[in-house]
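Morning F.,

Quick status update on the modeling queue. The single chain you submitted on Monday has been processed. Sequence for confirmation:
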Amino acid sequence: MWSKARGLAEQTPPERNRWVDFLRAVSIMAVVVGHWLMAGLYVNAAGELQRGDLLLVSDWAHWLTWGFQVMPVFFLVGGYSNSVSWQLTIGKAAPGQSGVYRDWLANRVQRLITPTFPVLLLWAALAVVLTQAGLPREQIRMATEAALIPVWFLAVYLLVTAFTPLAYRAWKRFGWLSVAVFVPAAMLTDWLTFTAGVPFVNFTNFLWVFLGVHQLGFAWRDGRFDNRLFALAWFAVGLAVLIRITVYGFYPVSMVSAPDGFSNSLPPTLALFALGMVQSGLVLALEPLGRRMLDNVRIWTATVLMNGMIMTIYLWHLTAFVLVMTVTWLAFGGAGLDAVPGTGAWWVSRPLWIGIYVLALLPMIAIFARHERSFGPIRGGRTVPRLRAVLGVLAICAGLGATAGLTIASPDSVSGIRWWVVALPLVGAALMGFGPVYRPRNRPGAREVA
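Structure tokens below.
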């Protein structure tokens, strides 16, 4: 895999912005390590396995979430890469050609949903088998919930991606106003949620916050952050706002969760929007240094290799965690799990445990990374009507959202799973005209980008 990545790295066209790929890889890896740190199982004095949470026992760790909650960076990168892909697609399309948006959307969806099917179907099968074997349903629910939490991000990202043509047109016509409009939208949503007590309206912030950060990717690609002083000023203003509304304001410092159950990320709040401004300004101010660093062929090869398996790492990292914890508890009686999360002994043991998680993840990468198909061309196939493609995306997003929010495990069904939750992404994929692997039409000159 290294030699293949090295060959691709050496063929990289000079106009490609390597910083985009690097940020994509680093942001996902930050999420992975953050999850491995935050999820703290331990054995209490009575010999019982307890579910701990670093953020619940260590207030100072809340500040770490400003570095580990980097989903805004992924949406920033997504805005950049989606604009590249969409602009290239419409540039190569013949005048009056039909199916341009449909094929483009199916292509983007395929790249994310195809690696998701194996982990979703595996856990559905495990839930059925474990239920029939008589394991406690609550334990099955905890395991499936922990392993499949990452798919919430895919639901939101696919939905935001579907808006790319409209969002990009708005950017070209209105510029910064197309970014600014999402700030009052997020503020109003928070006011309706926390002051007026309107139920469920907070879920609209998944769109307002992440569409706003996604728009910044368009600004980045159009050179609006080329002035590093501007990028630093953007970072400084965002940081001032973030500190004001968290440390001295209403929102908790933690960008993931807080002891009282208040979450700045599920659904997102204005505070996460401010964090997105902070992170965007910082990474774009560092871009010149980063691009010079990536001229080193070994560093760039590692980045190419990581991007070729990034979705597999993201989707399977908590499955590796659950596997390690299960084996440790059942086969070794919980050996090594006696340190309470947040204590000195717990921190000292983290490098060892993270190393074990990585070892458990490696076979999953070897088996499932091929589903990303990052190193191969996309060949010809068939298309579907636009409305059907949009309905397919909505079904996929609804299914993945329910997977993360409700879990696939059922507390009362005979099978042990919620079949409709598992079925929705598959139905959505079928509506879009592809199964485990989608192959859109091969237009002359078309190639995979960004």
